[in-house]
Design a protein that fits this description.
Structural class: mainly alpha
Largest sheet: none
Number of helices: 18
Distance between the termini: 65 Å
Strand content: under 5%
Oligomer: single chain
Radius of gyration: 21 Å
Order of helices and strands: HHHHHHHHHHHHHHHHHH
Helix content: over 70%
Shape: elongated
Length: 275
């Protein structure tokens, strides 16, 4: 059984044509059964293999999600005591939510809510934290839905995420970038921008990342400030605050940075000129 799973795992990581062949063979059906086994080794291998069937371009993804209890099953894996199984559960949920429609995201939140996702984000193990942040980022990817979710869960989301950007937390730069990417998505919501602007500790962190030596973190912070500066009926007040705190001046200084950073700075600065 283990050798069969290993073969399936290797094949599932191959080209799209092989995934189509595996779909025709319905290899995923016995794997779903193995996830329910008591043997932890079987659960690890089966769940890892299924994660590859759930990536965006896999022809198996839609079929798998149509199976009764699939989302509940992967939600339960996130709560598993074994770290590898938990990681695979988060990875699967992250893959499922990538480009998911509103109906699917709503179904996921019914079985694995924002508070549970935030608990996973607070994991001390970086590999679990990064996958949990990716899951949260996907859940908050729809601009219209962001405001609705943040109106209910905004306090919990911000109290969990903002401290992660503090130097005291000593997160890796990869983890910090993922946190910033979540804030970029949150800033897509018109009402949510005001929630972000009310957190001066967040604004100070963003200012520090605009000055960071890592260009990827600079790009993420620049994109986030740009999203928060997007023109709407309350943008004038946000622009004034960014000017007062130094973000506007720092964005201007980035115009002479390397092209990938300066290009993002130009986009962000355009919003300040729309008054």
């Amino acid at each position: 059984v283990v050798s069969t799973q290993s073969t399936g795992h290797s094949l599932s990581r191959s080209v799209k044509q092989l995934r189509t062949n595996l779909l025709d063979a319905e290899v995923w059906q016995p794997l779903l059964q193995l996830i329910r086994a008591q043997d932890c080794d079987l659960i690890r291998t089966a769940s890892m293999t299924l994660c590859n069937f759930l990536i965006d371009f896999s022809p198996s993804k839609d079929i798998l999600l149509e199976q009764e209890g699939t989302i509940e099953l992967f939600s339960q894996l996130v709560l598993h005591p074994d770290e590898e199984v938990k990681l695979n559960g988060l990875w699967a949920m992250m893959n499922i939510t990538y480009k998911a429609n509103a109906q699917l995201r709503s179904k996921i939140l019914t079985h694995f809510g924002i508070e549970q996702i935030l608990n996973a984000v607070e994991e001390s193990r970086p590999n679990l934290k990064i996958k949990a942040l990716g899951l949260l980022r996907n859940i908050l990817s729809d601009k219209e839905e962001v405001d609705r979710l943040m109106m209910v869960h905004g306090s919990s989301v911000l109290s969990t995420l903002v401290p992660l950007l503090s130097p005291v937390m000593e997160l890796s730069e990869e983890e910090q970038e993922q946190v910033l990417c979540v804030f970029i998505n949150i800033a897509g919501g018109e009402m949510s921008r005001d929630l972000l602007m009310a957190r001066e500790d967040l604004l100070m962190c963003l200012l520090e990342f605009l000055c960071h030596s890592n260009s990827q973190l600079q790009i993420a912070a620049t994109t986030c400030v740009g999203q928060m500066a997007v023109h709407d009926e309350r943008s004038e007040g946000r622009h004034a605050k960014f000017r007062r705190m130094g973000h506007f001046a720092q964005l201007q200084s980035l115009l002479s940075a390397r092209p990938e950073v300066s290009d993002r700075a130009k986009i962000a600065l355009q919003y300040f000129r729309i008054e």
